[in-house]
Amino acid sequence: MAITMSLEGKTAVVTGSNSGIGLGVAKELARAGADVVLNSFTDSADDHAIADAIAQEFGVTARYIQADMSSAEECRALVEKAGRCDILVNNAGIQHVAPVEEFPIDKWNAIIAINLSSAFHTTAVAVPQMRANGWGRVINIASAHGLTASPYKSAYIAAKHGVVGLTKTVALETAEDPITANAICPGYVLTPLVESQIPDQMKTHGMDRDQVVREVMLARQPSKDFATVEQMGGTATFLCSDAAAQITGTTISVDGGWTAL
Protein backbone atom coordinates (compact mmCIF):
# COMPACT_ATOMS: atom_id res chain seq x y z
CA MET A 1 0.00 0.00 0.00
CA ALA A 2 1.31 3.42 -0.93
CA ILE A 3 2.23 5.64 2.00
CA THR A 4 0.23 8.86 2.07
CA MET A 5 0.35 12.00 4.17
CA SER A 6 -3.04 13.19 2.95
CA LEU A 7 -5.69 13.69 5.62
CA GLU A 8 -8.53 14.56 3.27
CA GLY A 9 -11.86 13.38 4.64
CA LYS A 10 -10.62 13.40 8.23
CA THR A 11 -11.72 15.78 10.98
CA ALA A 12 -9.28 16.93 13.65
CA VAL A 13 -10.27 18.37 17.01
CA VAL A 14 -7.43 20.37 18.57
CA THR A 15 -7.85 21.70 22.09
CA GLY A 16 -6.28 24.99 23.10
CA SER A 17 -5.74 25.96 19.50
CA ASN A 18 -6.38 29.67 19.06
CA SER A 19 -2.64 30.37 19.43
CA GLY A 20 0.77 28.78 19.92
CA ILE A 21 1.40 25.07 19.46
CA GLY A 22 -2.28 24.21 19.10
CA LEU A 23 -2.78 26.67 16.27
CA GLY A 24 0.41 25.50 14.58
CA VAL A 25 -0.80 21.91 14.74
CA ALA A 26 -4.25 22.81 13.44
CA LYS A 27 -2.75 24.66 10.47
CA GLU A 28 -0.46 21.79 9.48
CA LEU A 29 -3.28 19.25 9.74
CA ALA A 30 -5.39 21.55 7.55
CA ARG A 31 -2.50 21.85 5.11
CA ALA A 32 -2.62 18.03 4.82
CA GLY A 33 -6.34 18.25 4.00
CA ALA A 34 -8.04 17.65 7.34
CA ASP A 35 -11.08 19.61 8.41
CA VAL A 36 -10.32 21.17 11.79
CA VAL A 37 -12.15 22.15 14.94
CA LEU A 38 -10.35 24.81 16.94
CA ASN A 39 -10.96 25.43 20.63
CA SER A 40 -10.18 27.61 23.62
CA PHE A 41 -12.03 28.92 26.68
CA THR A 42 -12.79 32.30 25.06
CA ASP A 43 -15.46 32.95 22.46
CA SER A 44 -14.55 36.13 20.60
CA ALA A 45 -14.87 37.32 17.02
CA ASP A 46 -11.10 36.91 16.72
CA ASP A 47 -11.37 33.24 17.67
CA HIS A 48 -13.87 32.56 14.91
CA ALA A 49 -11.83 34.68 12.47
CA ILE A 50 -8.85 32.36 13.02
CA ALA A 51 -10.97 29.40 11.94
CA ASP A 52 -12.27 31.33 8.93
CA ALA A 53 -8.72 32.19 7.89
CA ILE A 54 -7.64 28.54 8.05
CA ALA A 55 -10.63 27.50 5.96
CA GLN A 56 -9.81 30.10 3.33
CA GLU A 57 -6.07 29.39 3.25
CA PHE A 58 -6.26 25.60 3.05
CA GLY A 59 -9.64 24.98 1.44
CA VAL A 60 -10.97 22.90 4.33
CA THR A 61 -13.82 23.24 6.77
CA ALA A 62 -12.66 24.96 9.96
CA ARG A 63 -14.78 25.78 12.99
CA TYR A 64 -14.18 27.26 16.40
CA ILE A 65 -15.98 25.76 19.42
CA GLN A 66 -15.64 27.35 22.84
CA ALA A 67 -15.09 24.97 25.73
CA ASP A 68 -13.45 25.32 29.13
CA MET A 69 -10.97 22.45 29.47
CA SER A 70 -11.16 22.64 33.26
CA SER A 71 -14.75 21.34 33.02
CA ALA A 72 -15.28 17.62 32.45
CA GLU A 73 -18.69 18.28 30.95
CA GLU A 74 -17.40 20.89 28.49
CA CYS A 75 -14.48 18.68 27.45
CA ARG A 76 -16.86 15.89 26.54
CA ALA A 77 -19.33 18.25 24.90
CA LEU A 78 -16.56 19.66 22.67
CA VAL A 79 -16.02 16.30 20.98
CA GLU A 80 -19.74 15.69 20.72
CA LYS A 81 -20.35 19.14 19.17
CA ALA A 82 -17.59 18.51 16.64
CA GLY A 83 -19.84 15.81 15.16
CA ARG A 84 -16.89 13.76 14.00
CA CYS A 85 -13.45 13.25 15.50
CA ASP A 86 -10.95 11.19 13.52
CA ILE A 87 -7.93 12.99 14.99
CA LEU A 88 -7.88 14.24 18.57
CA VAL A 89 -5.04 16.52 19.61
CA ASN A 90 -5.04 17.23 23.33
CA ASN A 91 -2.97 20.38 23.59
CA ALA A 92 -4.65 22.68 26.12
CA GLY A 93 -2.44 23.56 29.05
CA ILE A 94 -1.51 26.12 31.69
CA GLN A 95 1.50 26.60 33.96
CA HIS A 96 2.32 27.92 37.43
CA VAL A 97 5.69 27.96 39.17
CA ALA A 98 6.13 27.73 42.95
CA PRO A 99 7.87 25.54 45.57
CA VAL A 100 5.79 22.49 46.44
CA GLU A 101 5.14 23.67 50.01
CA GLU A 102 3.84 27.00 48.69
CA PHE A 103 2.01 25.72 45.63
CA PRO A 104 -1.56 27.12 45.68
CA ILE A 105 -4.18 24.40 45.86
CA ASP A 106 -6.37 26.13 43.26
CA LYS A 107 -3.44 26.28 40.82
CA TRP A 108 -2.67 22.60 41.38
CA ASN A 109 -6.29 21.64 40.74
CA ALA A 110 -6.54 23.81 37.62
CA ILE A 111 -3.31 22.48 36.09
CA ILE A 112 -4.28 18.84 36.70
CA ALA A 113 -7.75 19.50 35.27
CA ILE A 114 -6.65 21.33 32.13
CA ASN A 115 -3.35 19.58 31.38
CA LEU A 116 -4.32 16.02 32.27
CA SER A 117 -7.97 15.36 33.05
CA SER A 118 -9.18 17.15 29.92
CA ALA A 119 -7.27 14.64 27.79
CA PHE A 120 -9.01 11.79 29.59
CA HIS A 121 -12.45 13.28 29.05
CA THR A 122 -12.03 14.11 25.35
CA THR A 123 -10.41 10.74 24.63
CA ALA A 124 -13.20 8.86 26.38
CA VAL A 125 -15.71 10.39 23.96
CA ALA A 126 -13.50 10.29 20.85
CA VAL A 127 -12.38 6.64 20.97
CA PRO A 128 -15.88 5.16 20.44
CA GLN A 129 -16.30 7.48 17.43
CA MET A 130 -12.95 6.36 16.05
CA ARG A 131 -13.89 2.71 16.47
CA ALA A 132 -17.21 3.31 14.71
CA ASN A 133 -15.45 5.11 11.85
CA GLY A 134 -12.74 2.46 11.53
CA TRP A 135 -9.79 4.85 12.00
CA GLY A 136 -8.40 7.21 14.57
CA ARG A 137 -5.42 9.09 15.94
CA VAL A 138 -5.02 10.39 19.48
CA ILE A 139 -2.10 12.80 19.82
CA ASN A 140 -1.33 14.23 23.23
CA ILE A 141 0.96 17.22 23.51
CA ALA A 142 2.99 16.32 26.58
CA SER A 143 6.38 17.94 27.20
CA ALA A 144 10.02 17.23 27.86
CA HIS A 145 8.67 17.59 31.39
CA GLY A 146 6.59 14.49 30.77
CA LEU A 147 9.87 12.56 30.72
CA THR A 148 12.06 14.54 33.12
CA ALA A 149 11.62 17.15 35.84
CA SER A 150 12.55 20.63 36.99
CA PRO A 151 12.07 22.27 40.38
CA TYR A 152 9.05 24.43 41.21
CA LYS A 153 6.78 22.90 38.56
CA SER A 154 5.21 20.08 40.58
CA ALA A 155 1.70 20.28 39.11
CA TYR A 156 2.81 20.72 35.51
CA ILE A 157 5.30 17.87 35.69
CA ALA A 158 2.86 15.57 37.48
CA ALA A 159 0.25 16.33 34.81
CA LYS A 160 2.60 15.82 31.87
CA HIS A 161 3.92 12.54 33.30
CA GLY A 162 0.27 11.57 33.66
CA VAL A 163 -0.40 12.44 30.03
CA VAL A 164 2.38 10.08 28.95
CA GLY A 165 0.90 7.30 31.09
CA LEU A 166 -2.61 7.96 29.77
CA THR A 167 -1.26 7.81 26.22
CA LYS A 168 0.27 4.38 26.80
CA THR A 169 -2.93 3.03 28.35
CA VAL A 170 -5.12 4.27 25.50
CA ALA A 171 -2.67 2.77 23.00
CA LEU A 172 -2.93 -0.65 24.67
CA GLU A 173 -6.73 -0.47 24.83
CA THR A 174 -6.92 0.34 21.09
CA ALA A 175 -3.99 -1.79 19.92
CA GLU A 176 -6.17 -4.15 17.87
CA ASP A 177 -8.17 -1.29 16.37
CA PRO A 178 -6.98 0.93 13.49
CA ILE A 179 -6.33 3.60 16.13
CA THR A 180 -3.04 4.91 17.52
CA ALA A 181 -2.25 7.01 20.58
CA ASN A 182 1.05 8.84 20.96
CA ALA A 183 2.50 11.79 22.85
CA ILE A 184 4.66 14.56 21.44
CA CYS A 185 7.12 15.89 24.01
CA PRO A 186 8.33 19.37 23.03
CA GLY A 187 11.14 21.26 24.64
CA TYR A 188 11.03 25.04 24.34
CA VAL A 189 8.89 26.07 21.39
CA LEU A 190 8.93 29.61 20.00
CA THR A 191 5.32 30.62 20.54
CA PRO A 192 3.99 34.18 20.87
CA LEU A 193 3.88 33.65 24.66
CA VAL A 194 7.55 32.64 24.81
CA GLU A 195 8.53 35.46 22.45
CA SER A 196 6.82 37.97 24.73
CA GLN A 197 8.90 36.78 27.69
CA ILE A 198 12.25 37.51 26.05
CA PRO A 199 12.35 41.30 26.58
CA ASP A 200 11.65 40.92 30.31
CA GLN A 201 14.35 38.28 30.60
CA MET A 202 16.77 40.62 28.82
CA LYS A 203 16.09 43.34 31.41
CA THR A 204 16.26 40.94 34.35
CA HIS A 205 19.59 39.42 33.35
CA GLY A 206 21.16 42.41 31.62
CA MET A 207 21.73 40.37 28.47
CA ASP A 208 21.03 40.79 24.79
CA ARG A 209 18.44 38.64 23.05
CA ASP A 210 20.87 35.94 21.85
CA GLN A 211 22.40 35.59 25.31
CA VAL A 212 19.01 35.28 27.00
CA VAL A 213 17.86 32.67 24.50
CA ARG A 214 21.03 30.55 24.70
CA GLU A 215 22.01 30.94 28.35
CA VAL A 216 18.67 31.35 30.14
CA MET A 217 15.70 30.09 28.16
CA LEU A 218 17.48 27.28 26.31
CA ALA A 219 19.93 26.39 29.06
CA ARG A 220 18.65 22.78 29.06
CA GLN A 221 18.08 22.51 25.30
CA PRO A 222 21.39 21.36 23.77
CA SER A 223 20.55 22.55 20.25
CA LYS A 224 20.32 26.13 21.62
CA ASP A 225 17.49 26.66 19.18
CA PHE A 226 13.75 26.79 19.70
CA ALA A 227 11.47 24.25 18.10
CA THR A 228 8.75 25.84 15.98
CA VAL A 229 5.00 25.43 15.98
CA GLU A 230 5.27 24.28 12.37
CA GLN A 231 7.56 21.45 13.49
CA MET A 232 5.02 20.45 16.12
CA GLY A 233 2.36 20.40 13.41
CA GLY A 234 4.57 18.42 11.07
CA THR A 235 5.20 15.82 13.75
CA ALA A 236 1.48 15.53 14.42
CA THR A 237 0.79 15.16 10.70
CA PHE A 238 3.37 12.37 10.48
CA LEU A 239 1.71 10.55 13.38
CA CYS A 240 -1.58 10.72 11.46
CA SER A 241 -0.04 9.30 8.28
CA ASP A 242 0.03 5.73 7.02
CA ALA A 243 3.75 5.68 7.77
CA ALA A 244 2.96 5.89 11.49
CA ALA A 245 0.21 3.23 11.56
CA GLN A 246 2.34 0.96 13.76
CA ILE A 247 3.63 3.73 16.01
CA THR A 248 1.49 3.69 19.13
CA GLY A 249 1.93 4.06 22.86
CA THR A 250 5.16 5.99 22.62
CA THR A 251 6.60 9.47 22.93
CA ILE A 252 8.32 11.55 20.28
CA SER A 253 10.66 14.18 21.69
CA VAL A 254 11.00 17.42 19.77
CA ASP A 255 13.34 19.04 22.25
CA GLY A 256 16.72 19.75 20.64
CA GLY A 257 18.32 16.95 22.65
CA TRP A 258 16.98 17.97 26.09
CA THR A 259 16.01 14.44 27.16
CA ALA A 260 19.24 12.95 25.77
CA LEU A 261 21.16 14.54 28.65
UniProtKB/TrEMBL annotation:
Organism domain of life: Bacteria
Catalytic class of the enzyme: oxidoreductase
Keywords: Oxidoreductase
GO molecular function ontology, one term from the record: 3-hydroxybutyrate dehydrogenase activity
InterPro entries listed in its UniProt record: 3-OHbutyrate_DH, NAD(P)-bd_dom_sf, SDR, SDR_fam
EC number per UniProt: 1.1.1.30
NCBIfam families, per database record: PHB_DH, PRK12429.1
Family membership noted in the UniProt record: Belongs to the short-chain dehydrogenases/reductases (SDR) family.
Protein name: D-beta-hydroxybutyrate dehydrogenase
Source taxonomy: Bacteria, Pseudomonadati, Pseudomonadota, Alphaproteobacteria, Rhodobacterales
The encoding gene: bdhA_1
